[in-house]
Design a protein that fits this description.
single chain, about 150 residues, alpha/beta, six-stranded mixed sheet, 5 helices, 6 strands, about 40% helix, globular
Length: about 150
């Protein structure tokens, strides 16, 4: 099993939780981003820097992640592509994307994108990442890893 992070917009506390989980469970961790993240070298941790551009990091993850891997991403279309390939995806706030939820999440995302494009919805982003979000993520990650994901 490999842990993956869509790292361009991943909150640092989530990255830290993933680093600790990878070390504790002796799993490989791959962070994919459009620029270097300034991480110190560590056993089992690899940083992949992809060229800038729309969805380049997403495409890299979709091409390289395998069933049984776990990917952290807030990108709904990326999560949809992963779930279709039987790869588990979780967002930085601890929501697990699965075949039962991803269709609705993608439909809502697309509707909101259309409404924003038509000027009918605000352009505000998600609420700031909080300690509660970090705890929710850590709890969801622990549950997934305890289930033996990837075995």
């Amino acid at each position: 099993m490999t842990l993956w992070i869509d790292a361009d917009a991943c909150p640092r506390p989530v990255r830290d939780v993933m680093l600790r989980a990878a070390r504790r469970r002796e799993l490989q961790l791959v962070l994919v981003a459009n620029s270097a993240l300034g991480l110190a070298p560590a056993p089992g941790v690899r940083q992949v820097v992809v060229p800038g551009g729309a969805d380049v990091a997403d495409l890299y993850i979709i091409e390289h992640a395998q069933p049984g891997d776990l990917v952290v991403t807030a990108d709904i279309p990326l999560a949809d592509g992963l779930v279709r390939r039987d790869i588990t995806a979780i967002n930085p706030r601890g929501e697990i994307y699965d075949k039962g939820s991803i269709g609705e999440r993608l439909a809502v995302r697309n509707l909101m994108d259309e409404l924003r494009g038509a000027g009918l919805a605000g352009r505000g982003g998600p609420a700031p990442f909080s300690d509660k979000d970090k705890q929710s993520f850590a709890n969801a990650l622990d549950r997934l890893l305890a289930k033996g994901l990837g075995k």
